[in-house]
Write a structure and sequence with these properties.
With 336 residues, this protein is an alpha+beta fold. The protein has a single domain (6-297), classed as B-lactam Antibiotic, Isopenicillin N Synthase, Chain (Jelly Rolls). It contains 9 helices and 14 strands. The chain has helices at 6-10, 31-34, 53-66, 79-93, 97-101, 156-180, 188-191, 263-268, 323-331, and strands spanning 35-41, 45-47, 69-73, 115-117, 132-139, 199-207, 228-233, 239-243, 246-250, 257-261, 278-280, 288-296, 302-303, 321-322. The chain has an 8-stranded mixed beta sheet. Strands 1-9-8-11 form a 4-stranded mixed beta sheet. Helix 3 (53-66) links the parallel strand 2 (45-47) and strand 3. Helix 3 (53-66) packs across helix 6 (156-180) and helix 4 packs across helix 6. The longest helix has 25 residues, at 156-180. Bound molecules: 2-oxoglutaric acid (AKG) and fe (ii) ion.
Length: 336
């Protein structure tokens, strides 16, 4: 069965200010009702160029315990590189549908999740998200399948490879700080996630304009399955975080990287660091896009609370099991 792309649905003149009913969320989820309007949530902003490493460790671990999300500035990725990354991503989504479909993700999830696609997880109560995406691994070289990378625009590959290298530098720094924040050696956390085999998976989210943004959602509420996610959005507001029982818009800071703590870091820190519960809203007139990179352990790698963090007073709160088993439960909405 052909999947209909949201980008296509959004362009139908027959919509006439409405959206198909499978995009209308339950009342308890509708942004109009569940968002605290007019308040921008100021999640912690961390200046990575500060020379005081101890301070960075303290502020990053504090943010990861309290919020599970923070933004980093002066991270070393040039803003012009971020602009080029965004330009080639946008150009891919602006190609004719038939061309995008040449790298569509396989119809059956067991054949992989890379490629151009529309639905990722089993949808709750048959509701759909107002978003299309492209998914492909960017690191390490042994797991890259260039068949799922756009051939057009022709500079897509080179720019994404350049961005990935810079992102690895930033992520290695962050892992060091996060590790020290738990009282562990600098390299401990990355090792507990697969070390040099840690996988970097890029997703580009494409949220077309939506005639009824107050009734729909882009990505439904979730925590990321990844260890951590490093994301740049475009300038259109849309990311929301759940705090004190309500949803808040996260303030957009140009060229900042948004860091999400995901499930795997929550697990290996035995719950000290919290995976952030988040979702996205869509816009009536503008296309929102975002570029999360999910940092994940290899499929066969076992993840569990780091042994040094476990003692009589701190029994393990999570199972130790293969990442692919965590993945299976998450995708099928089964208990971990
Ligand atoms: O678009 C965003 O800002 C967040 C997207 C997201 O949460 C996801 O793709 O997992
Ligand atoms: Fe997410």
């Amino acid at each position: 069965m052909e999947v209909q792309r949201v980008q296509e649905i959004a362009s139908l003149s027959s919509l006439n200010g409405t959206i198909p009913k499978e995009y209308i969320r339950a009342v308890t989820e509708q942004p109009a009702i569940t968002t605290i309007h007019g308040v921008l949530l100021e999640v912690p902003v961390i200046d990575l160029s500060l020379p005081d490493a101890e301070k960075l460790v303290a502020s990053i671990s504090e943010a990861s315990k309290e919020w599970g999300i923070f933004q980093v500035v002066n991270h070393g990725i040039p803003s012009e590189l971020i602009s080029r990354l965004q330009k080639v991503g946008r150009e891919f989504f602006e190609l004719p549908l038939e061309e995008k479909e040449t790298i569509a993700k396989p119809a059956n999830m067991k054949d992989g999740i890379e490629g151009y696609g529309t639905k990722l997880q089993k949808e709750v109560e048959g509701k759909k998200g107002w978003v299309d995406h492209l998914f492909h691994r960017v690191w390490p070289p042994s797991v890259i399948n260039y068949n799922f990378w756009p051939k057009n625009p022709p500079t897509y590959r080179e720019i994404n490879e350049e961005y990935t290298q810079k992102l690895i530098e930033v992520s290695d720094k962050l892992f060091g700080f996060l590790s020290k924040g738990l009282g562990l050696e600098e390299n401990k956390m990355k090792e507990a996630l697969g070390g040099k085999d840690l996988t970097y998976m890029l997703k580009i989210n494409y949220y077309p304009p939506c005639p009824c943004p107050e009734l729909a959602l882009g990505v439904a509420p979730h925590t990321d399955l990844s260890a951590t996610t490093i994301l740049v959005p475009n300038e259109v507001q849309g990311l929301q975080v759940f705090k004190d029982n309500h949803w808040y818009d996260v303030a957009y800071i140009p060229n900042a990287l948004i860091i999400h703590i995901g499930d795997q870091i929550e697990i290996l820190s035995n719950g000290k660091y919290k995976a952030v519960f988040h979702r996205t809203t869509v816009n009536k007139d503008k296309t929102r896009m975002s570029w999360p990179v999910f940092l994940e352990p290899p499929a066969e790698f076992e993840v569990g609370p780091i042994p040094q963090l476990i003692n009589q007073d701190n029994p393990p709160k999570y199972k130790t099991k293969k990442f692919k088993d965590y993945l299976y439960c998450k995708l099928n909405k089964l208990p971990q």
